[in-house]
């Protein structure tokens, strides 16, 4: 049961905002009601309020986010410690290897990118779907997500897997929960994760943990590359040691 100080209406308003994703850029009242579990009347009131506040706009019969929501992310990225200390480190990796690197966090069962670096050509022509800042992806479909899951309490992971339906984004996405649990054990033992084409066809990645000074895993550092440009052996033999070194450099800057 929620504490008496808990404001349920605020939760509802935020849940409406969270309905808007790369998969659901335009939503009508019925879809918002379906996603949130609200009645159509309640969904309409929250959408109307958010529209009046300037966070969404109505076009025809659908609603879209406005640029005003960037105020939240801008405030976070300008003050959060981890993106600030990590950006120079991953910039150096991109400069050296001409690949895309990012820092990600686990939020529930989703992984979100809070810091990334890539060369201009990569951004313009080969940016993997969902790799922009702030995007949320199912953790079982990405190297960073599985890496972060591997360091969670085993009981929590079993509970999450019991509650969640594991969606299949590509033919290669692993959704067998027993197989995933075994893979998470392996990831935790080796302290890195390789994933190929589970989130997007033609893309593979390697992730390593970022620890704080108390040996807690606080984030994942990964490299993402098109399969037609790098091999699995190259990512593991050539890039992985530099990922581990960079993660250690970030650790020394945490407080």
TrEMBL record:
Keywords on record: DNA-binding, Transcription, Transcription regulation
Any Pfam family hit: IclR_C
UniProt xrefs under InterPro entries: GAF-like_dom_sf, HTH_MetabolicPath_Reg, Tscrpt_reg_IclR_C, Tscrpt_reg_IclR_N, WH-like_DNA-bd_sf, WH_DNA-bd_sf
GO MF term set: DNA binding; DNA-binding transcription factor activity
SUPFAM superfamilies (UniProt xref): GAF domain-like (SSF55781), Winged helix' DNA-binding domain (SSF46785)
SMART domains noted in UniProt: HTH_ICLR
Chain segments annotated as transmembrane: none
Listed PROSITE patterns: HTH_ICLR, ICLR_ED
Domain HTH iclR-type: 7-67
Descriptive protein name: IclR family pca regulon transcriptional regulator
UniProt organism field: Acinetobacter lwoffii
